[in-house]
Amino acid sequence: MNRPQERGITTRDVVLVALFAAIIVALGLVPPITVGIVPVPITLQTLGVMLAGAVLGPVRGALACGLVVLLTAVGLPVLAGGRGGLGVFAGPTGGYLVGWIPGALVTGLMVKYWAAKLTRGWAKAGAILAACVAGGIVVVYALGIPWLSVSSGLPLREAALGGMVFVPGDLIKAVAAALVAHGVARSYSMELK
Amino acid sequence: MNTSLYVPGNTPLHRLPAGAKFGVLFAAGIGLFLLAHPGVLGAAAAVAAVLVLSARAPLAALRARLLPVGVMLAVLFAATALLQDVPAAVVMLLRLAALILLALAVTLTTRPADLLEFFERLTAPLARVGVADPERISLGVSLVLRFVPEVFRRFQEIREAQAARGLKANPVALLVPLIVRTLKAADDVADAIDARCYPPPRRPSGGARTEENPT
């Protein structure tokens, strides 16, 4: 790791990270929305995690998620439904929360080094979607499911099967995140970091 | 949102330093996973429950904290009992209940500021090699707390404006303007912070004024 000056985290980066963390927290306050045919209401908070990586870039996106995780740990009700506190980490779903940090990092890396370089609109949106699925679903589940398995004593296979319940909702969120990130990039161009 | 999960009080748990409480919780987190005897785990859960009660939190607050966790544990208990067997489900239930109750006791009795300060001291070695900067982290934390109501208000404004035009709630149409506006606001906030020279440069404090006016 380099020193902060060399790494170039400016005041603007700190503000962007904090404001995006505020967006993630605020999305947890929004009443769950029922989308079309899927009967399960979805909260928008994990959408914010995918967006953090896709809009801010890998480092700042991961830092924004890290800030939300830190606020959860010190006991503020920043998660959807007013949850928070150290109990979240002690519980079986703690891995999903911790997984946000590498998840946003992976989404950010894929958008920065792959999707942002594409020129055709539909190819770009598709690449952002792939980045949201890889970071926001694959990476987050890769931490969440083993954590659930260790914490509950369920075998890994059963824990993975149980986790699949949330895949349809998360896929819808990934599509929404890709559309939002694409729309934001068109109206406000920003260097990814 | 501005309310934290902390409940003010002056019980023995409140008076313990944040570091000690976190240390015990961390040790319990490892210890409880090494144990598999239902009796011992049951005793641990009972001790944790007594600790939570000793925090003297209002019952309504406890119910709000424990109800969602209880539902989740019940689902997990049923799943484990079906997929494995009942003894394994009992061990899982007691272990998680003990750990979650202990963590709740720490959260209820420790001010967020104290825990934050403890984490800051914990990461001090990282700060010295330049990986984490405590001043920037605390700037980030206070900005989040300041801007959550702001972002939420902006969110409702956009929603109302779209509803007035007969549009249904659509996450994509809501989030694009919300994020663009927030990104633009970030530039103003960053300029305001820079104009006030925050975070202050690291120098021995006290002599700033005389340095500016050398005679």
Automatic annotation (TrEMBL), chain A:
Cellular compartment(s): Cell membrane
Name of this chain's protein: Biotin transporter
Transmembrane segments: 12-30, 36-56, 63-82, 94-115, 127-148, 160-185
InterPro entries membership: BioY
Keywords assigned by UniProt, alphabetized: Cell membrane, Membrane, Transmembrane, Transmembrane helix, Transport
Coiled coil recorded as keyword: no
Membrane topology: Multi-pass membrane protein
Organism name: Nocardiopsis suaedae
PANTHER family: BIOTIN TRANSPORTER BIOY (PTHR34295), BIOTIN TRANSPORTER BIOY-RELATED (PTHR34295:SF4)
Major localisation: membrane
Sequence similarity: Belongs to the BioY family.
From TrEMBL, chain B:
Keyword Calcium appears in the UniProt entry: no
InterPro entries registered for this protein in UniProt: ABC/ECF_trnsptr_transmembrane
Protein location: Membrane
Location, primary (coarse class): membrane
Tree of life domain: Bacteria
Record key words, sorted: Membrane, Transmembrane, Transmembrane helix
Pfam families, A to Z: CbiQ (PF02361)
Spans traversing the lipid bilayer: 20-53, 65-83, 89-108
Membrane-related topology note: Multi-pass membrane protein
PANTHER family on file: PROTEIN ABCI12, CHLOROPLASTIC
Descriptive protein name: Energy-coupling factor transporter transmembrane protein EcfT
